[in-house]
Design goal:
It is built from three helices and five strands, in the order H-E-E-E-H-H-E-E. It is an alpha+beta fold. The chain has two domains: 74 residues, Double Stranded RNA Binding Domain; 33 residues, no CATH class. The strands form two sheets. Strands 1-2-3 form a three-stranded antiparallel β-sheet, with helices on one face. The protein has a two-stranded antiparallel ribbon with strand order 4-5. Strand 4 and strand 5 form a beta hairpin. Helix 1 packs across helix 2.
């Protein structure tokens, strides 16, 4: 469920798909899995270990989604820089009939200057 939501988020945001790494931290007869996921250059690691690989990956995907949501709320801008760039280019080229457009985005991605 959370892995699907995270993948949908990355696709809608024009980001690379999440990359998961799941390691067994227990003995062979009693495995304990911990997952890490990379999304848009950020690394998220599950705090707990799980009996099943899928549970560990779902947990870390949930952690990543919660962290991303918090970041979006704190920064006040739901658009990532790459998405902002695409919207600006599309809007300017279609609304004003420019074949190309130029802009500058502030490093936080919150302010676009045309």
């Amino acid at each position: 469920m959370y892995k699907n939501r995270l993948q949908e988020y990355t696709q809608k945001s024009s980001l690379q798909l999440p990359v998961y790494q799941t390691l067994n931290e227990g003995p062979a007869h009693m495995p304990r899995f911990r997952s890490t996921v990379w999304v848009d250059g950020a690394r998220y690691r599950s705090q707990k270990t799980f009996l099943h690989r899928k549970a560990a990956e779902q947990d870390v995907a949930n952690l990543a989604l919660e962290s991303i949501l918090k970041r979006v709320k704190d920064e006040g801008c739901p658009l990532l820089l790459g998405v902002c760039e695409q919207i600006v280019n599309f809007t300017l080229s279609n609304a004003i009939n420019f074949s190309s457009s130029s802009f500058c985005c502030w490093s936080s991605g919150n302010l676009c200057i045309f």
